[in-house]
Fold:
Amino acid sequence: NAGVTQTPKFQVLKTGQSMTLQCAQDMNHEYMSWYRQDPGMGLRLIHYSVGAGITDQGEVPNGYNVSRSTTEDFPLRLLSAAPSQTSVYFCASSYSRGDYTFGSGTRLTVV
Amino acid sequence: GQQVMQIPQYQHVQEGEDFTTYCNSSTTLSNIQWYKQRPGGHPVFFLIQLVKSGEVKKQKRLTFQFGEAKKNSSLHITATQTTDVGTYFCAGPRSGGGADGLTFGKGTHLIIQP
Structure:
């Protein structure tokens, strides 16, 4: 099993550009979520999904969209990138017990 | 909303000394989980989830405790080694079993001086 796979690992965007961060898991986990990690702020929840076709907002959802068309995939879309979205983004998945397996992250810089 | 506080933010120890990080939630938690993140890496679950009031679990040199009120927790490492370097996070489910994600503490950075 590959676990949780995130692509790309690094990305530089210009302000106003859009992009999609990819996340895929092969563990048949129902729960998936996206976090951003900023220095001194810990991990903050952006969006989450409890199953295919079901998504909801987390703590810091503004500027991001998600979809969950399959159990395996949970992409995160940045609609119009801003410097404040410079961060490290982690995707995570879980089965019913609720402890999460994290991907290796995407380091995003918006200039 | 739910908040999880964690102290200290940084901890410097000499190799061989003990280390403890403390976690406190603003709400009662159904469980608490601990994660470790190595520098430049991603959070990794310790494979220990505390569920019961007053629960204590051990994993080699690590001891995890859950408070009686299920609002606080601690992680204690005995005789630190250089491989223990990293950031330690506690996390609790936002609600119920964690289907809607976790609330993380801000982490404790463990720095070990040989």
